[in-house]
Amino acid sequence: MCGIIGYIGHRRASEVLLHGLSQVEYRGYDSAGMVVSSGHGMRLIKDKGKLRDIHAKHNFLQLEGGIGLGHTRWATHGEPCERNSHPHSDCLGKVAVVHNGIIENHRVLKEELVGKGHRFTSDTDTEVVAHLVEEGLKSGADAPAAVKKAVARLEGTYALGILIAGENRLFLARRHAPLIIGRGKKDEMFFASDIPALLGYTRDFILLNEGDIAQLDSRGAIIWGADGKEAVRPPLHVNWTPQMAQKDGHDYFMIKEILEQPLTLASAVSADVTGGVKLLKSAKYPAIVACGTSYYAALVMQFLLHKAGRPASAYIGSEYASWRMRGEDLVVAISQSGETADTLTAVRLAKEDGAKVLAITNVVGSTLSREADATIYIGVGPEVGVVATKTFTGQLAVIYKLVYTMNGNKAGLEELAAMPSHMQKMLDEVQGQVKQLAALMAKRKNFFFISRGAGWPCALEAALKLKEITYLHAEAYAAGELKHGPISMLEDKVPVIAIAPSGPLAAKMESNIRECKARGASMIVLSDDKSLLQEGEYALSMPAVSEDLVPLFYILPMQLLAYYMTLELGRDPDQPRNLAKSVTVE
Question: pTM surpassing 0.85?
Answer without folding.
Answer: no
